[in-house]
């Protein structure tokens, strides 16, 4: 209770300066002529769009197309955006946003355009787990809440990629029919402004993505439906990653990371999970045991075991069995030499693949 009061007080203090903050803002709102798509539907709006600081603002009704509700309290200039248990609270002409218990700075400020409440698109939709793409060649912004995007230009890219691969290998054989209805979300840790662990020129975010991409191909070949929380070098909010998997009703969630330690001699693998007392056929803990056992065996790595971590967002906020696989220590120069090689990354991906298949069959 005390915590709630303190948080409410902090939020109050932060928002006390609504008017003074707006007076200081010198970045302009500029009309933005662009095509916007939400979940494969082209958005029609009379109001139009704005851009501020390079970030697009859209009418509240457009934000509601992504499955959230927007409440507007004109007396306080207050906007409340909610879905399920989650709420974002922001004010007109103010960068600050209360995102659950934390206060964040948004890249652009909400504003009014002819009485229409205009809201920063990317910040808000990503906070609720959607993905936002920019197609520069066609001047389109694409928002997807499901990860399922059917726009012609994206389809073309997919087809080109498929052609480069052996098409037969992507057909699931009959014994894998069971896997066809399974959904796995891969979560390459960090990204964008968050590099994760850094060793010289090597950044963890890149290694995480490299392994995830190999793993994705293996799973797709087995007929499993795979989604990635990011497939390029971008920043994705941790809550957004979990919300993304929850909305997809994924069967498993695998977050891929590399470790760091002040002890530069430390080497080996560990698997983190969220401890729960729920009894299910497959839990985060059971999944972690499978992942860890296979990694130790396949990578001939030192065994740090499975570790319960109650405070990690992606494993705590996901509603399906979820693990964080730590593939090795970047702080060990000896281990790092291995981690950057394709051979190791492929071995690690194959090991995680085996674990995912094993866990899916036990679910
Ligand atoms: Zn990490």
Query: What fold name goes in the CATH topology slot of the largest domain?
Result: Aminopeptidase
The N- and C-terminal alpha carbons lie at a distance of 38 Å
Major sheet details: 6 strands, mixed
The computed structural class is alpha+beta
How many structural domains?
Answer: 2
Taken as a percent bin, the fraction of beta residues is 25-35%
Bound molecules: zinc ion
The strand count comes to 22
CATH superfamily of the largest domain: Zn-dependent exopeptidases
- Please give the order of strands in the largest beta sheet: 18-15-19-22-20-21
Assigned CATH class of the largest domain = Alpha Beta
Number of helices: 11
Q: Specify the helix fraction band.
A: 25-40%
Q: Which spans of ≥5 residues are poorly predicted at pLDDT below 50? A: 5-26, 164-170
Reported CATH architecture of the largest domain: 3-Layer(aba) Sandwich
Cα-atom radius of gyration: 22 Å
Shape: elongated
Kindly report the average pLDDT value.
85
List keywords for this structure.
363 residues; six-stranded mixed beta sheet; binds zinc ion; Copper Amine Oxidase, Chain A, domain 1; 34% helix; Aminopeptidase; 2 domains; five-stranded antiparallel beta sheet; 11 helices
Characterize the structure shown.
It is a single chain. The two termini are 38 Å apart. The protein contains eleven helices and 22 strands. It folds into two domains: 23-132, Copper amine oxidase-like, N-terminal domain (Copper Amine Oxidase, Chain A, domain 1, 2-Layer Sandwich), CATH 3.30.457.10; 178-362, Aminopeptidase. The radius of gyration is 22 Å and the shape is elongated. Helix 8 (284-299) packs antiparallel against helix 11. The protein has a six-stranded mixed beta sheet, sandwiched between helices. A five-stranded antiparallel beta sheet has the order 1-4-5-12-11. By secondary structure, it is α+β, with helices and mostly antiparallel strands. Bound molecules: zinc ion.
């Amino acid at each position: 209770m005390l915590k709630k009061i303190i948080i409410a007080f902090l939020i109050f203090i932060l928002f006390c300066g609504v008017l003074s903050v707006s007076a200081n803002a010198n970045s302009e709102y500029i009309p933005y002529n662009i095509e916007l798509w939400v979940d494969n539907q082209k958005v029609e709006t009379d109001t139009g769009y704005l851009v501020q600081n390079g970030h697009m603002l859209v009418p509240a009704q457009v934000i509601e197309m992504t499955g959230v509700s927007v409440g507007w309290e004109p007396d306080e200039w207050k906007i409340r955006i909610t879905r399920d248990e989650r709420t974002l609270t922001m004010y007109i002409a103010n960068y600050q946003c209360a995102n659950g218990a934390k206060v964040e700075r948004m890249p652009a400020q909400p504003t009014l355009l002819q009485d229409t409440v205009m809201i920063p698109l990317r910040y808000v939709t990503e906070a609720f787990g959607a993905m936002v793409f920019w197609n520069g060649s066609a001047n389109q912004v694409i928002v997807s809440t499901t990860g399922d995007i059917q726009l012609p230009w994206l389809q073309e890219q997919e087809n080109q990629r498929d052609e480069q691969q052996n098409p037969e290998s992507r057909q699931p054989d009959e014994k894998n029919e069971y896997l066809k209805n399974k959904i796995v979300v891969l979560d390459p840790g960090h990204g964008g402004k968050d590099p994760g662990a850094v060793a010289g020129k090597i950044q963890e975010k890149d290694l995480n993505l490299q392994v995830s991409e190999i793993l994705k191909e293996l799973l797709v070949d087995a007929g499993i439906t795979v989604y990635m929380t990011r497939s390029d070098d971008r920043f994705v909010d941790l809550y957004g990653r979990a919300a993304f998997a929850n909305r997809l009703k994924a069967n498993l969630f695998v977050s891929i990371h590399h470790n760091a330690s002040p002890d530069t001699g430390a080497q080996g693998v560990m698997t983190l999970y969220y401890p729960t007392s729920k009894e299910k056929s497959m839990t985060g803990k059971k999944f972690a045991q499978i992942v860890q056992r296979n990694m130790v065996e396949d990578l001939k790595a030192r065994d740090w075991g499975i570790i319960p971590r109650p405070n990690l967002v992606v494993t705590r906020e996901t509603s399906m069995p979820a693990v964080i696989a730590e593939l090795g220590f970047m702080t060990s120069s000896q281990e790092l030499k291995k981690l950057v090689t394709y051979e190791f990354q492929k071995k690690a991906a194959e090991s995680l693949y085996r674990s995912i298949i094993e866990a899916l069959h036990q679910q």
